[in-house]
């Protein structure tokens, strides 16, 4: 059985592996096998008696938890099984917190640690009382606009005739007459006074990020931003195509309005509000929206492209947006973006994790099929070829339809200095997405190999022609 999210193999014991125990305890639990290699093959432990005494003591004394430590035997080979149960309280090792994510151990710091500790306490960031705020910090006009928006749906409870405080209580945005952070983000008069990174910044770029032509900074609560950002994009940043059917003038946006709205909603609802502002970059051929805050530990990008469960980072903000009809709670936001682009004849949007957040990009090029026409492929190939160095070109010429290790590639290239190979050849080809890892979840695996991507094959084909 290979290593996975709740299984870890170690050939021998080292006290540093207490971090793995901590990571499992803070996640969904798991098992650590001492005396097995990466493939699960048993390696006999000579000192198993000593380890059976010391490991339980070290776990209890260092982490303050207990684990089942069992001696196992197979064909006269002894190995140890450590069963770690998940804990509802945070577990630390010398003041440091670790979490098992996928098949890797991650140390939690900064924003991630703050969210983790809140989650263990049964709260999210927006569920905390904002001691600096009073009812006077809530904008009545924003509440009125919110109620008006909610009329089209049937999700908002009856709020007619309620005071501002009573209205917020209906949405669970106050506690003991004290304002929560979620109330400020949704309806605050000046949310930036409490959380400086709450703004949305829009920039118009031409060729690259260095070529900024103009930009705007929009500040306000979510109800305001939902309307104003879309309005500003349509008024100043995006071009509307005009066609006539008889005497009827029809305007069509560059990108589906539904996709833009869902992108903005996802960025505002699921972002980290103690981080930096939401960024919207508009180029000649694409538009991208980025918000700080990665995916939950139990999710990955591929899950967003299909039907998935909704895991809101800000639970109360998400619930308030749901009651207004802005979002649903079925995890369909990304599917709406993808499907609306497909319906409009645009390429499939790109969704990636980058710079500690999520970035969604819409492309203005035609349909998916059009992307692979000879003309478009040739244009893409020319753009990438301009960035290919001689070293990268030599590397690609060594790779056929097979998988190669570092040593094999260095041997074919005749390069003996490993750092030179890694920096000048391998990493640059990876950055250009011309090659890819066979084991992307374990970049430093001893069994790691590399192969051509589709883009790499296109580049090589263009050289042959």
TrEMBL record:
Residue ranges of every copy of the Filamentation induced by cAMP protein Fic-like C-terminal domain listed in the record: 390-453
Bias (Basic and acidic residues) ranges: 451-465
Domain Schlafen AlbA-2: 3-108
Classification via InterPro entries: Fic-like_C (IPR049514), RecG_C_sf (IPR038475), Schlafen_AlbA_2_dom (IPR007421), Schlafen_AlbA_2_dom_sf (IPR038461), WH-like_DNA-bd_sf (IPR036388), WH_DNA-bd_sf (IPR036390)
Alphabetical list of Gene3D superfamilies matching this protein: 3.30.565.60, Schlafen, AAA domain, Winged helix-like DNA-binding domain superfamily/Winged helix DNA-binding domain
Region (Disordered): 445-465
Name of the protein in question: Transcriptional regulator
Organism: Maribellus luteus
């Amino acid at each position: 059985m290979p290593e996975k999210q709740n299984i870890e193999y170690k050939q021998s014991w080292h006290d540093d592996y207490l971090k793995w125990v901590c990571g499992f305890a803070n996640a969904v639990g798991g098992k650590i096998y001492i005396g097995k290699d990466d493939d699960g093959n048993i390696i006999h432990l000579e000192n198993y008696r000593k380890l059976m005494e010391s490991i339980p003591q070290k776990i209890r004394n260092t982490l303050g938890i207990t684990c089942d430590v069992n001696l196992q035997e197979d064909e006269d080979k002894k190995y140890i099984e450590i069963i770690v149960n998940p804990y509802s309280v945070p577990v630390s090792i010398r003041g440091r917190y670790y979490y098992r994510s996928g098949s890797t151990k991650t140390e939690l710091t900064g924003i991630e640690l703050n969210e983790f500790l809140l989650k263990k306490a049964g709260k999210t960031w927006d569920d905390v009382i904002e001691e600096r705020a009073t009812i006077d910090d809530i904008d009545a006009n924003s509440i009125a606009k919110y109620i008006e928006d909610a009329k089209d749906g049937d999700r908002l409870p009856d709020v007619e005739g309620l005071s501002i405080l009573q209205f917020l209580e209906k949405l669970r945005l106050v506690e003991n007459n004290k304002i929560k952070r979620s109330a400020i983000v949704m309806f605050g008069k000046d949310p930036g006074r409490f959380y400086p990174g709450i703004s949305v910044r829009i920039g118009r770029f031409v060729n690259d990020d260095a070529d900024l032509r103009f930009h705007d900074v929009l500040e306000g609560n979510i109800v305001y931003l939902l309307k104003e950002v879309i309005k500003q994009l349509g008024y100043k940043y995006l071009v509307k195509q005009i066609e006539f059917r008889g005497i009827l003038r029809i305007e069509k946006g560059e990108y589906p309005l539904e996709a833009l709205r869902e992108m903005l909603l996802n960025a505002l609802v699921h972002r980290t509000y103690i981080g930096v502002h939401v960024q919207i970059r508009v180029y000649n051929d694409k538009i991208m929206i980025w918000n700080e805050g990665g995916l939950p530990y139990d999710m990955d990008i591929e899950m967003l492209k299909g039907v998935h469960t909704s895991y809101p980072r800000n639970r109360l903000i998400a619930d308030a947006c749901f009651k207004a009809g802005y979002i649903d709670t079925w995890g369909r936001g990304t599917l709406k973006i993808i499907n609306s682009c497909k319906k409009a004849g645009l390429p499939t949007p790109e969704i990636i994790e980058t710079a500690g957040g999520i970035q969604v990009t819409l492309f203005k090029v035609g349909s998916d099929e059009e992307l692979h026409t000879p003309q478009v492929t040739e244009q893409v190939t020319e753009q990438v070829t301009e960035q290919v160095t001689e070293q990268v070109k030599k590397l690609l010429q060594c790779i056929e339809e097979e998988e190669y290790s570092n040593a094999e590639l260095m041997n074919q290239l005749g390069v003996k200095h490993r750092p030179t190979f890694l920096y000048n050849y391998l990493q640059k080809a990876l950055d250009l997405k011309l090659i890819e890892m066979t084991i992307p979840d374990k970049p430093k695996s001893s069994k790691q190999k590399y192969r051509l991507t589709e883009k790499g094959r296109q580049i090589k084909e263009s050289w042959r022609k």
